Amino acid sequence: MVRWKLLKSWWNSSRMSSITYDNCEVFPGPHLNMIVGANGTGKSSIVCAICLGLAGKPSFIGRADKVGLYVKRGCSKGLVEIELFKTPNNLIIKREIHVANNASVWFVNKKPSTLKIVEEQIAALNIQVGNLCQFLPQDKVGEFAKLSKTELLEATEKSVGLPEMYQFHCELKNFRERERELENSLQEKTNFLEKMKQRNERYKQDVERYYERKRHLDLIEILEKKRPWVEYENVRQQHEEVKQNRDHAKEELKKLQQTKSPMTQQIQEVEKQWRNLDIKIKEKTIEIKDTSQKCKQKQDAVEKKDKQIEEIQQGLRMKTDEEMDRRKRIHNTRKMIEDWQNELNSTGNSENLQPQIDSINNELRQLQEEKANIDGEMSDLRRERENLEREKKRVTDRIVQFNNMMNLKEDKLRGRYRDTHNALLWLRENKDRFKRSVCEPMMLAINMKDNRHAKYVENHISANDMRAFVFESQEDMEIFLREVRDHQKLKVNAVCAPAQSCAENRPSRSVEELHQYGVFSYLRELFDAPHPVMSYLCSQYRVHDVPVGTEKTRSMIERVIQETKFKQIYTAEERYAVKVSAYTNQTISSNTSLRQAQFLTVTVDADERRQLENQLKVGRFQLRDSQLQKLYERQKFLERKDNELRQQKKERLERKNKRKQLESKISMKHDSLKQMEQDAINLEEESQQTNARIKEINIQKAKLVTELMQLIKNCITLNILKVDLVLQSTTVNSKKNRLESDYKAATVQLRALEQQVSDLGEKKSVLLEKCKGLLRKARQACNLSPDQEIPKEFNTVSIKNKRPHFYKGVMAFQDLPNTLDEIDALLNEEKSRASCFTGLNASVVEEYNRRAQEIQQVTEELEEKKNELERYRQNISQVKERWLTPLKQLVEQINEKFSNFFSSMQCAGEVDLHTENEEEYDKYGIRIRVKFRSNTQLHELTPHHQSGGERSVSTMLYLMALQELNRCPFRVVDEINQGMDPVNERRVFEMVVKTACKESTSQYFFITPKLLQNLTYAEKMTVLFVYNGPFMLEPTKWNLKAFRRRRRQVEQMDQ
Prior knowledge:
Elements: E1 11-17, E2 24-26, E3 32-36, H1 43-53, H2 58-61, E4 77-84, E5 91-98, E6 103-108, E7 111-113, H3 115-124, E8 135-136, H4 141-146, H5 149-160, H6 163-259, H7 263-346, H8 354-416, H9 418-429, E9 438-439, H10 442-445, E10 447-448, H11 454-460, H12 463-466, E11 468-471, H13 474-487, E12 493-496, E13 521-522, E14 527-528, H14 531-540, E15 547-548, H15 551-555, H16 557-564, E16 568-570, E17 574-580, E18 587-593, H17 606-617, H18 620-678, H19 683-781, H20 820-835, H21 843-904, E19 908-914, E20 925-931, E21 939-940, H22 948-963, E22 970-974, H23 982-996, E23 1003-1008, E24 1022-1025, H24 1040-1054
Parallel strand pairs: 3-23, 3-24, 8-22, 11-12, 22-23
Antiparallel strand pairs: 1-2, 1-4, 4-5, 5-6, 6-7, 9-11, 10-14, 13-15, 16-17, 17-18, 19-20, 20-21
Keywords: ATP-binding, Chromosome, Coiled coil, Nucleotide-binding, Nucleus, Telomere
Family: Belongs to the SMC family. SMC5 subfamily.
Domain Rad50/SbcC-type AAA: 22-286
């Protein structure tokens, strides 16, 4: 076991038995310690040992969360021993790590100790292994740029600030928190006091209202005492009035009974007279009915004779009209025969028309044949056009389906990477700003041929490149990034395709040779992509030379790796990465499970889509339309020609058949004329017969009319007698009704008087009992015994219409109203007034006084809170002055060194103290702004805006700016130069050497796997080379003197 030995440094020695080493001892120098070694040799193990040995948390290193995982595999425990420089005696800290239970055993100066004691010892030396400004492990380099401004300020305060600076900052934050609490408490107290004052002000009004309500209640009490006396007096007066009304009704009843008896005899006599008249009226009614029936019979007979005469006259008129019509038809027929005869004489011979008709028939047959051919062609074209329409609809629907699938991919992009989607929308609207073509993000541009293979592509291409835009021109990419990153503040990625296309690169072996291993394709053949995207993927990810296999490949993976020499291989569910050790030349493979695809599962057949779009561009549909239009025009021409020929044929046929038709018509009309001449009627003879029949019927009608007139006269006489009897009956009936009405009225009046007498008697009894009850009630209301005389003050007689003024004292009965309505109105008014004073009781005054005392107490507390707040603000002002002034000076010093470092690199950078509100001490932070190109502005250092190399340079220069100000005994930076380009790496290295090798600076550990050639070195720096591996000499066999001797011999031989 080797020991570190170093004087006058904070690190004197360290022993390790963990992770990479069985045992190792390191001797660092007092200034810059450059630890160099190839990857995997154990450089970072030294960093892990420093962190764990100084009570650092395993999670801070970022490699494992349990301390037992830092022990070399196969060992049960590990050991870290660190010797720290301290006056007068060095401090030795030892930590034993046990794998079984992840436990640690601590020793301080070879004596058992506890973690708490170790942490106190380390804190006393201002060692902070959890501070990224002091201790920056390899896996935490990227997190430095992710530090918020507040976190960076706290880390800087702890690292380079005065010992009390961070303490003052914490006190200010606590003071500010307490100040907020006091302000909130003061505000709450103020609001509470204001509410109490307002509430007590309302209570003051309630007190006044309480006394006012009491005056109303006193008046209500007096009114309620007088009311029963007024009720009693009213009921007593009603009783006297009812008694008088009952006596008067008894006298009227006696008089009415005496006048009722003579009316009955008169009613009986009138009833008998009315019955006799009614019998006579019924007898006359029967006689009138019989006479009327006979009149009706005679009248019907007369009307029947009139109808017979009308029918005879109608028959004569019909025969006259028939004869006149016959004569007119004969005239018209003769005229028609004459006209047809003239037309027949003018018609020529029709034999020469037949050849013309035959010629027209031949032309019509030819036209029909041509029309049939055109109809067939049009039917075929229509069917073909319908088929094309269906095909066009199918093609359009398929293209829409492809577009929907692309929209689905775009929706996934928008949901996962909103900034990238916004940049995509901007790109589509501004493509004219770029000189060469720009490809959309790869996840949209890549189209899988089979979505089952999407997982291979997504596992092979990084997520950052999947959402990256691909440019063919570096200038176009800079324009795009300047717009979306600098102006729109979007977090987007962009890459540039290689100048020389790599899309057609050939694989190292043909896929047919790999079928024996289960390989079915190379990665490039599984998807389609635009040429720049494919060129970039072939250049960056070598997709043309990454085979994809099946389960068969996985089962024989060792053989595949050994025989094919591929760097990456995909099987059905795993990815194999193959490396060759630079030290042992051994092949090392690692495998990881494939994660499921998220973005490329939606596939669109690009070839099919192009074919469909080409089909739409071909004008087959327009060609069919033009052919149909030509045929349609030819068909219309043939139709017109056919109509003309048919019209000509019709005219010639009509001319040929017209002579025969005329001869036939003339013959038929002659026959019809003869028949009409034979059907003549003798009108004179018919008229004589009709007059004779009418005369005979008129004689019979005259006899019937004479008999009817006699019957009418008899009916009139009977009706006159009946009317006289009805008038007599009506007079008698009226008299009878009047007598009956008088009798009924007398009866009703008699019963009403009897009922009135009875009701008045009952009412008198009720009122008497009510008077007694009201008297008892009135006495009880005034607290009078039954036999006590009523006092004079309870007399209800008083001056009327006198309005009491109850506010001046209790009033007497005489001053109150004497009617129930007035009392009730006044009582309701007073109750309403009293009811307005709700929620009032005798305790309201007591509550008012109690709250007045509370207001006084709260006012005193509020004054104390104001004084306390003022004291806190004075303390804050004092602590702020002691904290902020040194802090601003410190930040100015850091900014000066940081700016100088950047200026020496022809770049720009600045550090400032940033806050939005000077009173919010937890929002203070250090802001780092950098500029690496002359045509850009200063931008804040973030994990997204700068590249990895730019972030590494910025981080390193900031740490170097802290180096001369550092109060911590040492600083550790692990592999920060990995992402730098050679120019920046050389500049940063020179700054590190120059700064860390000064006398006033603290010890510095710089770990790197590589160094550039011809770097500048200093005498005070220490270079530690780490050699480790299975083929290295054992430590016991290593002889440094012998190595040096052999080296000098070789140099002499070369000379």
